[in-house]
Amino acid sequence: MRLINLAGRLATQEAADLVDVASASGGRFGPDPHDVLDRWDEFMAWAGSRPPAGAPVPAPVSAGPPVPRPSQVFGIGLNYADHAGESGMALPSLPMVFPKFGSCITGPGEVDLPSDTVDWEVELVVVIGRPARHVAEADAWAYVAGLTIGQDLSDRALQFAGTPPQFGMGKSLPGFGPTGPWLVTPGEFADPDDLEISCSRNGSRVQHSRTKHLIFTVPALIAYLSSHLPLRPGDLIFTGTPAGVGLGHDPAVYLRPGDELVSTIEGLGSLVTRVSGSDE
Ligand code: ZN
Q1: Ligand 1 centroid to 101 CA: how many Å?
Q2: Which of 92, 152, 173, 250 is the most exposed place for a label (fewest CB within 10 A)?
Q3: What pTM was estimated for this model as a whole?
Q4: How far is CA 250 from CA 86, 130, 199, 254, 268, in A?
Q5: Span from the CA of 76 to the centroid of ligand 1 (angstroms)
Q6: How far is the CA of 22 from the centre of ligand 1 (A)?
Q7: CA separation for the pair 147, 236 (Å, rounded)
Q8: pLDDT tens column, 53-97
Q9: Cα separation values, 128 from 60, 118, 145, Å
Q10: Domains identified in the chain and CATH numbers
């Protein structure tokens, strides 16, 4: 199933059409994406009786974040070996978890630069679909509603301002959590653990990898996080970024007003982020 938030109303792709979930269900499900996420098993049963999605269609420009108000947003640092290397950091022995505060979550579209030290990080984002606590890795995919694309935008100066560094604030400024455009259920992928992932800046590719290179896989992250705290429907996990971020360049390169990021993941389409701000 391929789902999309169109101006605050959840739609599902059936054949080549985008169908409003609230209307098609006769009001059984509300238009807000969270109404569906909170009753995910019931929704999946209803969706099973509907026509399947055809080939992917372009995302309308009105697409918003698939999950507008997640109760928890987890970031995972240094989860690709090549990115840990370019950051000059040792490989983590446990998932390195930081918060992205929920007010930063947006959809495709514009982000206003707050400084001249903002970096890009394309990431596979997991959307939790069922309450999860002490979940075994082998069962973890059953707790996933779907996957989407995210940008873990990061103000590097703020991220590394203190000792020890505190990642949450520097990765949570307004607009620093673009997500979307699609929420695609795991069953739509031949192998949801091995997806091509890339990011281009102004048309030149800066990041390119596959999610099979994640040090801690999606099931491993769900098992780890849920061993410590409950995961709730609609929670997001930004699973980490591969090499090629601006900080990894010598000298470092950061976003400028007028830049365009296109973040692409196999089976999920592309998330377009336009950068605005005063250029001085
Ligand atoms: Zn990240």
Answers
A1: 13
A2: 250
A3: 0.97
A4: 10, 43, 19, 11, 31
A5: 6
A6: 34
A7: 9
A8: 999 999 998 899 999 999 999 999 999 999 888 888 889 999 999
A9: 24, 28, 5
A10: 1-57 (no CATH), 66-276 (3.90.850.10)
